[in-house]
Amino acid sequence: MPSMYGDLDRPPLHAEALRRALVTAGSLWTELEVVAASPSTNAVLADRARATGDDGVVLVAEHQTAGRGRLDRTWTTPARSGITLSFLVRPGTVEAARWPWLPLMAGLVVAATLRDQAGVAAAVKWPNDVIVDDRKLAGILVERVEAIGRTPAAVVGIGLNVSLRDDELPVPTATSLVLEQATTTDRSQLTRALLRNFDRLYSSWMLSGGDPAQGLQAAYIDACATLGRQVRVELVGGGAATGEAVGVDSLGRLQVDTAQGRQSVGAGDVIHLRAVT
Predict the structure, then answer these.
(1) N or C: which end of the chain has fewer CB within 10 A?
(2) Do residue 215 and residue 129 come from a single domain?
(3) Is residue 121 in some structural domain?
(4) Each residue of 209-248: pLDDT tens digit?
(5) Torsion of CA 40, 204, 206, 50, to 10 degrees
(6) pLDDT one-digit tens code per residue, 114-163
(7) 189 pLDDT exceeds 60?
């Protein structure tokens, strides 16, 4: 009997089951939609954040045709080969200076979920990647959205490689759950666990007023593969900071000991050079 979808290794998400499991009383999540295709789930929810006061909305795309990464990079993957989703939250009671913890929090949640659910030795790479042995498994993009008369919103985008094969990887330094021999590649199970875990950590962060000293900072440092490494950080405004990554401060900035002294980096592309011995 022919399959209702083309690739038996890539079944569709169980949208209604996800809604029943996640959109419940007391949950952060108020709405969850799965669409067949979207140019960019982040762009769709950013537009929604400007037009409405919605909060807790999740949008998942089975095929994202023009995904947006940091520094306006675009990417695409085969349909149903990954988890590509965005969600809209409004942490209005947390001061803007603490919002840089949102991408770090999302990366921490993804890594912890994959270790627990899929048996993969995932770690975070500052500021917004999830890696296995320096190969990129997932990426995070967080955008702050402001509109007159509305509480500022954050749109958090997550792209996770699930069943990508060697010849489908966007770059040779990427990987996927299949290639890492994960114990599960069930995208519905992983999506459910990921969103539940984010709900718990985000709710705790909100209750603390966004204070990372209430456990978040320590957990991130413990999971961060960048620390203790020689790194080169390509800075957004040009130039680079090279040295040993030694910490993540209370504002989520990477601390790099360079030849000129310690430098706090708030944004940039990190290249892992070698471990410190």
Answers:
(1) N
(2) yes
(3) yes
(4) 999 999 999 999 999 999 999 999 999 888 899 999 999 9
(5) 20
(6) 999 999 999 999 999 999 999 999 999 999 999 999 999 999 999 999 99
(7) yes
Instruction: Give the structural domain span for 263.
Output: 227-275
Sheet holding 268-275, edge to edge: 261-265, 254-258, 240-248, 229-235, 268-275
Contact 111, 105 (CB under 8 A): no
Residue 72: per-residue pLDDT: 52
Both tokens of 15, joined, read 């949208």
Residues 205 and 253 in one domain: no
Chain-centroid distance, C-alpha 116: 16
In a domain, 105, yes or no: yes
Asked if residue 118 and residue 95 are part of one domain, the reply reads yes
**CATH number of the domain bearing residue 110:** 3.30.930.10
pLDDT of residue 3: 38
Domain count, the chain: 2
Residue 216 CA to residue 144 CA, distance in Å, equals 20
What pLDDT is stored for residue 147 in this prediction? 96
> DSSP secondary structure string, 158-214?
EEEESS--GGG-SSTTB--TTTTT-S---HHHHHHHHHHHHHHHHHHHHHTTT-TTT
Peptide bond into 127 cis (omega under 30): yes
Residue 8 lies in a domain: no
Q: What is the CATH number of the domain that holds 237?
A: 2.30.30.100
Place of tokens 């962060």: 205
